[in-house]
Amino acid sequence: MGGARSPLFAARIARKTQSAKYLGVGIAVLNLEDAFDELVIEPFVDSYIQGLTPNPCVQCNQVIKFDQLLQYARANKIQYIATGHYAEIKRPEGKSVELWRGKDKNKEQTYFLHRLHQSHLLRTILPLGETSKRKARDLAAKLGLPGASEPESQEICFLPDEDYRLLLETRRGLGIARSGDIIDREGRKVGEHLGTYRYTIGQRHGLGVASPRPYYVMEIRPEENQVIVGRKEELFSSHVEAESFHWSAGRPSQNGVRVTAQVRYRHRAAPGRLDVVSPQEVRFSFDEPQWAITPGQALVCYEGEKVLGGGWIKKAQG
User: Fold this and answer.
1) 137 and 96: one domain?
2) Longest dimension (CA), the chain
3) What residue numbers bound the domain in which 45 lies?
4) Which of 298, 217, 315 is nearest to 261 (CA)?
5) Number of independent structural domains in the chain
6) How far apart are CA 89 and CA 97, in angstroms?
7) Is 254 contained in some domain?
8) pLDDT tens digits for 234-290?
9) DSSP characters over 41-77
10) What are the angstrom distances between the C-alpha of 232 and each of 192, 207, 236, 257, 268?
11) What is this structure's pTM?
């Protein structure tokens, strides 16, 4: 669905076509290459140039998979859409539709779906939310579906050789590879970098800094062309500010609610206090400091297993 020129996408379309033929159902292939480029890839590139670490899968789910699929469904008078995400949608009587974690805790994907609106959730069915990835694969194999043994995609699907740096240099030119200083928290120069876009918060390897104790990237300052490094213990933060916050099923009725929050997909949700600063801005205070909270990633908040909402991390503080 993302790009016709990509061998990866072409192979996926071929497998889905085989599955549709096996099941005896029709299939329509939408070429969304231009939309994918404009709404996912370009913002991804811009974010790295700005010193952020983006999560394109969150953006893709909202503006490509669900927006475009629902647009097609409405145009063709299709009442519901269904996807293979490991998450659950609950429809309590007289209340907003709710997004809940899937039963398979190792594969559940609500982190990537937190920006879905009520208009998405109302017309979506997630049939895999109550099962596990293993059971789904076993069932597919039992039915003889062509995609039963399809390898899992763990990396960003549009990256050549899984290297985002190559993509940025191809899109923006090698002129972005401006060398600059790597400095520590006290302002001392400890090394040189080859372009601020080449580094992410928490990165340890590839810094080229000689030291008896390893340095980690703590901050990226593209305006000053600097990369700030520190020791591992200095990367722990208790307070997070997030912007463009999207409330999945409405804002809480009071401020300072006790919930849990994730700061990246593989981060285990940790408890703390959620304060609403403005309709689209929140501040979250963790009970225990969390490591390597990264601007550009999503802060997603949960009430138990239910998604409250999420926003883009703007800043983390000690």
Assistant:
1) yes
2) 67
3) 7-161
4) 298
5) 3
6) 7
7) yes
8) 999 999 999 999 999 888 878 899 999 999 999 999 999 999 999 899 999 999 999
9) IHHHHHHHHTT----HHHHHIIIIIIHHHHHHHHHTT
10) 20, 14, 8, 30, 19
11) 0.92
